[in-house]
Amino acid sequence: MQVLIAEDDFISRKLLEANLSQMGYGVSIAENGEDAWQQFNAQPTRIVVSDWLMPGMDGLELCQKIRARENTDYTYFIMLTANIGEDENYFMAMDSGVDDFLTKPLDRNQLQIRLRVAERILRSTSRIQSLETMLTICAYTKRINFPEEGWQTIEDFLCNHFGIQLSHGVDPGYYETHIKPELARLTAKHAGTGK
What we know:
Elements: E1 2-6, H1 10-22, E2 26-30, H2 33-42, E3 47-51, H3 59-68, E4 76-81, H4 87-95, E5 100-103, H5 108-132, E6 136-137, E7 144-146, E8 150-152, H6 154-162, H7 172-193
Parallel strand pairs: 1-2, 1-3, 3-4, 4-5
Antiparallel strand pairs: 6-7, 7-8
Helix pairs in contact: 2-3
Keywords: DNA-binding, Phosphoprotein, Transcription, Transcription regulation, Two-component regulatory system
Domain Response regulatory: 2-119
Pfam families: Response_reg
C-alpha cells in the first residue's frame, strides 16, 4: 500500500520514509502541503501522514482539500504534531477530517499501530463501497457472488458481513396463494385414492 508523507523537516521526513519502507509500504514524499496536494491530486493514495505545521499549505488545509476532492476513495489521514495542546486543537483537526494523530518525535511502534488501524478501516470502506455497488445473485440458487470471497448463501453473506442471523418462515401471502391450495389438492387426491 502506498503512503504519502507531507513533512517539511528533513530529518523527520527521512525517518518516516525509512520506517515506512521497512514496514513494506510504498512511499511518496512531499516537502510541503502544496507539493503533497499536487501529488495526491494527480495520484490519490489511501494513507497520508502529514505534519500539522508547514509553510504555505499546512496539514489541516491539506486534509480539507483531500476530503473535498470528489470521486476519491477514502483516505486515512494521520496528523503529525510536536504538541496537540488544548482540546480545541483536537476538535479543529477532527472537524477538518483528520483520522488520527502521532506526536513527535516519531515512535515506530505507535506508527505501526496507527497504520494497522488505517488498513483495517480502509478494508472496511472498500467492502462498503463494494456493497454500495451491485451484488451478483444467482437467479437459480439465490447465492451471492461477493468480490474476493466467491459464491455464498445469502444467510452466510449477511452473517459474515453484518452479524445478522436468519431464521426461515413462510410469507403468509405466499402460503395462502400457493401452499394452502397445493395442500388441499394433495389432501383431496389422497382421500380419493384411500392413501
